[in-house]
Structures are given as C-alpha cells and as structure tokens.
TrEMBL record:
E.C. number(s) listed in UniProt: 1.1.1.141, 1.1.1.232
GO biological process, one term: prostaglandin metabolic process
Protein species of origin: Pelecanus crispus (Dalmatian pelican)
Protein name: 15-hydroxyprostaglandin dehydrogenase [NAD(+)]
Keyword Lipid metabolism annotated: yes
Length: 236
C-alpha cells in the first residue's frame, strides 16, 4: 500500500495509474502536496493515516536543483525533509502510540563531497545527511522503534538533470553547464531502478540505522564508512 505525494498533479496521477495496472486501485493513493507548505504536508500525512489506517515507511524524496532561487532549494531539499521526518516520527514512534517503522531521506553524493557550480544544492544534501545521522542516534537512544537512513545516489536519469540546461535554475553558474555535463558523462547516469533496489534493501534490513548508502554507476550499492561516534550517552 503506497501513498504518492507530489506538487505535480499530472505526474502523480500518471504514477498512480501505472501502479493501478499492476495492483488493486485502493492499494495506492495520490495526494497533491507542496512539501514546502507545512499545512499541506501535515494534511497529507493525515490523509494517508485516514486512507490506510497506519504508517510504516516514509521516503522524503522531493528535491530540486535551483541555484538562482536558492532559498526555495533549501526549503524543498532540506527544510521539508526535516519536517517530513518529524511528522513520520510523530505517527510511528512507539512512545507516541506508533508501531515503529522506517524513514529514508534521499540525499546525494553531493552531500559527501563538494559540487562545483551547485553550492546550495550541495549544502542542502550535506544537511540531509547530518540531520538524518543525528536523529537516527536519538531514535536509537530513545527507543523510538524507527530506523532512519540516507541514500546518496550519483547522477540518476530523472527530470532534475534537465535543470542544468536552464538559466532560471543555474543562475550565475549557467555558463558552466557543460562542465557539469562532462562530469555526468565521466561518472555515468544510472537508471532509477537501482535506487529503488537500494531503497528496498534499507527497508528489509532491520539492522540498518543511521547508515549512508551510496549508489554509483561504477560501484553500485555500497555504504559510506565513518569512524565510530566519539560520544554516546546512555538513555536517561
């Protein structure tokens, strides 16, 4: 049972119709939602609970590449991920009457390294990783029963790649679009299906919490290795 949220109603309906061809129509629901609008996002979560009766998995996946309107990029790529995570925890954490669950926040390889000509996009993706790793530690210490992990793909064949050709997205970095395209050619562009494969891995492996999954054309699915967290407190 899947709920789809998107501000693009046409794309959302198309996705639902594609799923309806394989599954019973009542097993999916599309909810138009602008994730930057707190009331819309909260209302969408309420509609999901109303429709399905429960919530087990949240994937915060909305993202844009817009260096010109960088405030909007922060709102969509980072602020909405934080808000979506807190809403998911509100419904799923055990201390609040929930049954536990999984939250997966989509970052990017740009969250682990510099991204020339995309500094704000890069900053938001670094933020997603830092927030998710931190709240995952909290969830473990407080026995929320919710696992939180991050996926960091390389270049993926989705409409966001088209933004590189648009001055209204790239702003002062528009003249460097060919350099970004050369990077895409060098590193390779992946099919979205491998990202879905990584997503299923995180959902099914209940040992994963606070992990950062990297997915690249050259190495496939693997994980970022970190040193052990220097300080952990016992649950109060």
């Amino acid at each position: 049972q899947v709920a789809l949220l998107d501000r693009n109603s046409e794309a959302g309906q198309e996705s639902k119709e594609a799923l309806d061809e394989q599954f019973e129509a009542q097993r999916t629901v599309f909810i138009p939602c602008d994730v930057t609008d707190p009331e819309q996002l909260k209302g969408a979560f309420e509609k999901v609970i109303e429709h399905f009766g429960r919530l087990d998995i949240v994937v915060n996946n909305a993202g844009v590449n817009n260096e010109k309107d960088w405030e909007s990029t922060i709102q969509i790529n980072l602020t909405s991920v934080i808000r979506g995570t807190y809403l998911g925890l509100e419904y799923m954490r055990k201390g609040n009457g929930g049954d536990g669950g999984v939250i997966i926040n989509i970052s990017s390889l740009a969250g682990l390294m510099p991204a020339a000509f995309q500094p704000v996009y890069c900053a938001t993706k670094h933020g997603v990783i830092g927030f998710t790793r931190s709240i995952a530690v909290t969830a473990h210490m407080e026995n929320y029963g919710v696992r939180l992990n991050t996926i960091c793909p390389g270049f993926v064949n989705t409409p966001i790649l088209q933004s590189i050709d648009k001055e209204e997205n790239m702003g002062q970095y528009y003249s460097y679009k060919d350099e970004i395209k050369n990077m895409m050619q060098f590193y390779g562009v992946m099919d979205p299906s491998i990202i879905a494969e990584g997503l299923i891995t995180i959902i099914e492996d209940d040992t994963l919490n606070g992990e950062v999954m990297k997915i690249t054309a050259s190495q496939g699915i693997h994980f970022q290795q970190y040193n052990q967290t220097p300080f952990t407190s016992s649950k109060r």
